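Meet my pick.
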Amino acid sequence: MCGLLGILAANSDAAELVPVVERALPCMRHRGPDDAGTWHDEDAVFGFNRLSIIDIAHSHQPLQWGPENQPNRYSMTFNGEIYNFVELREQLEKKGYAFNTSGDGEPIVVGFHHWGADVVKHLRGMFGIAIWDSVERKLFLARDPFGIKPLYYATTERGTIFGSEKKSLLEAAPEMGIDAKKLNKRALEHYVDLQYVPEPESLHTDIVRLESGCTAIVTPGGEVKQTRYFKPNFPIQPVAKGAEQDVFDRIARALEDSVEKHMRADVTVGSFLSGGIDSTAIATLAKRHNPNLLTFTTGFEREGFSEVDVAAESAAAIGVEHIVKVVSPEEFAGAIPKIMWYLDDPVADPALVPLYFVAAEARKHVKVVLSGEGADELFGGYTIYKEPLSLKPFDKVPSPLLRGLAKVGEALPEGMRGKSLLQRGTTPLEQRYYGNARSFNFEQLQEVLPWAKKEWDHSDVTAPIYAQSEGWDPVTRMQHLDLFTWLRGDILVKADKITMANSLELRVPFLDRVVFDVAQTLPVDMRVSHGTTKYALRRAMEQIVPEHVLNRRKLGFPVPIRHWLAGDELHGWAEDIIRESQTEEFINKDAVLKMLAEHHPTERDHSASGPSLPSWSGTASSSKTALLRTSSSATTPSSSSSLYDGPRDSAPSCPGRLSPSLGQPIEKARTSLS
């Protein structure tokens, strides 16, 4: 695990750029406080910060390897973990290759020499990879299929700079010719609409991301040429009557194998535990490999917004030691400036905050944690996936009558029974569903962003993804969309950024190639049926998790922010943040303040106004606040803030910590999914 940073020089002057990389590396020291270093030749310079997890004493990066006659042909740095590295090493040794380390990085570069770009198809893990081939003079970049690990890049006349965090690229902006003040307004509109910045964009026009499930080749002075290798097609396999148990057993075996591989480490591995089926399954399986497993959860003092008791019950049932962190409103507000810096681009998910605190608590005890992210997207876990079943009668309505029903739905008063059903039933899936959390129709969005363009609405992001799933059933299309939007834009961004902020490695066994191979074959009635979601997964877990967990309602870090913003806890704080921000160029602050003022139970609750399409919540299953939070450089944490435990100096002074012109221009907060 590490944070990587590198430059492929356009003019064979990489040596001149070594000081730039050395200056920018400390901006992401939290990703790897155990070791740091650089390497360069005339074309490329690589830097890294290492969090030592496997082969602690060796496996330093940048790593060099080559065949017998070219011993230093390849130089590599990568961020992540390869869980099948033992099997890969054995496979490659049988083909005659020699290894110099026992870590998980060397099999990548040896595999690249053997398979070329197809090496990614042999990897089980999470990764952002950079390999420089000094013979072919080509740079190879890659990200894992789901986008667990990030990789930003920018190409200028000086060359291509790439790294695990945008802040390091911004630190190198002057020498690389990156315009650090140029806001990507399209990305900002997408953020306000979707609550995250969708790939491949960032809020800086000059900096983008290598997309999840893609590789790329770059030559000195050339452009980044991407190729997608992960193309989920959901080859559904009908299940014969009486063969259901075979399917459940396949799921259980795949997850058992994944957890076994994800437990590989030379340091202690713990597990997050919410008390729900996903995290409980992971923790139960992890305990088989570590009888002294520690589990961690967080909650709030407000009744109804804490998983603490539920998680404790699950921990007792599976027999693990359980550690709890309770977060106060004051702690919540105080952590936000730090969190926003760590994020690079904002994510409007208040679950970031409890995750930050539980990660900090976990880091006092362990270096690696397992978590249950990805189960909902793979196995059909969100309540909204039930919607196509409830709307099925509309499929039989002739088009002229459907248009008439749509007009009736529009004419009905807000809140009237039946309005939501008519609106949803008469709206095509492509327009109706664009993620698990959305806040605005276009008219509302324009109130906040007066310059907003209709062509930049949600369909700008979702239409190309929906085009890939034409002809599929609607539930599968929704899951497929979420893989490329919600999962990689919100869930995995906050999982990576916030745990790494605490120098803690988070592993997600559900997002494994072997698990996905099983999940994508499940018919709809194995996902959403029998009145529940994740049906097949629940049945598979009957042999693993305690009975009381199997059908428990999904919580997912519930945050009482809508109550705090309506009350004394955070209302004044939010108002001050908005007024003092320096965002008038982009945001109608008066509209934001009006929403905040209206956010009161006796006026208009902007956290959840019901399931109607034009409403604040947008979907029947999502519940979130509509606070638009602005920030300026005044909210930036001091350079000496203590942000993670473990051996390290004080947090580095990094001029690229926050671009004053952009700040973190806007943040919406939301409560957890239903």
